């Protein structure tokens, strides 16, 4: 009789066929853990944990100290994801997980998972970790050489974040952070920051370029491009012609680096003629397209005969005249 009781007791201690087959190990729930975090820890789906633990309710919280059966079968191995960094965001009035996700260009479920949220409810003042992929950032971030970038001054408004500002200007938020030497991702309403924008993109988007059609250069000769307009090397005394009809708004030699200079105002833009041996027009004169307005002189400090020619918007932005040059 005693032997029979011992056998029955021993059998009762063995795991059932179902549990023996499905439980790889048992996990003891720790404070702050959720079904998602446990499933993720063992590379499983939440449904896998629920099937192995029939008494669990997906809608209810786990209890600290609760034992969970971890089944053998898990998710198929996935490719190693790129390292993830986190941006800290402080929840503002009216925010929701989906709106915050949209601000940062991420999935709201990733934010929920990164912060181990048990529901979609968030609170004003709550700090959230926003996951950002290092690999993605490395692809979009770019280091620009001097002269390749234009800095736009921007004053921070309510609801702004580095990511949102970067999205407005089509740049990477890390470049804004670096340009302003920010130690954190936190910015304040009213703060004035510099936004680095590639020069070419800036010119395309922010400079209202006038319609210009230059049929010819002011003088024939060898053309050399510079950071401001072009130098045209020709014989001293050659005639300098206006590229379009307009009104002379300057004729003088007040700027030593430009020597004798003539500035003509056209419909929507300015043309500048410098290094002249002689100016043949005065301020206020109306000139016709092709009219002689000066003579080629010496380029200061070089001893060579040349004309410096520029085209600018009326706001003073320098344009490359060769981009508007048609057939002679």
TrEMBL record:
<dbReference type="InterPro" id="IPR016047">
    <property type="entry name" value="M23ase_b-sheet_dom"/>
</dbReference>
<feature type="domain" description="LysM">
    <location>
        <begin position="152"/>
        <end position="195"/>
    </location>
</feature>
<dbReference type="GO" id="GO:0008932">
    <property type="term" value="F:lytic endotransglycosylase activity"/>
</dbReference>
<feature type="domain" description="LysM">
    <location>
        <begin position="25"/>
        <end position="70"/>
    </location>
</feature>
<dbReference type="InterPro" id="IPR018392">
    <property type="entry name" value="LysM"/>
</dbReference>
<feature type="domain" description="LysM">
    <location>
        <begin position="87"/>
        <end position="130"/>
    </location>
</feature>
<keyword id="KW-0378">Hydrolase</keyword>
<dbReference type="InterPro" id="IPR036779">
    <property type="entry name" value="LysM_dom_sf"/>
</dbReference>
<dbReference type="InterPro" id="IPR011055">
    <property type="entry name" value="Dup_hybrid_motif"/>
</dbReference>
<dbReference type="Pfam" id="PF01476">
    <property type="entry name" value="LysM"/>
</dbReference>
<dbReference type="GO" id="GO:0016787">
    <property type="term" value="F:hydrolase activity"/>
</dbReference>
<dbReference type="Pfam" id="PF01551">
    <property type="entry name" value="Peptidase_M23"/>
</dbReference>
<protein>
    <submittedName>
        <fullName>Murein DD-endopeptidase MepM/ murein hydrolase activator NlpD</fullName>
    </submittedName>
</protein>
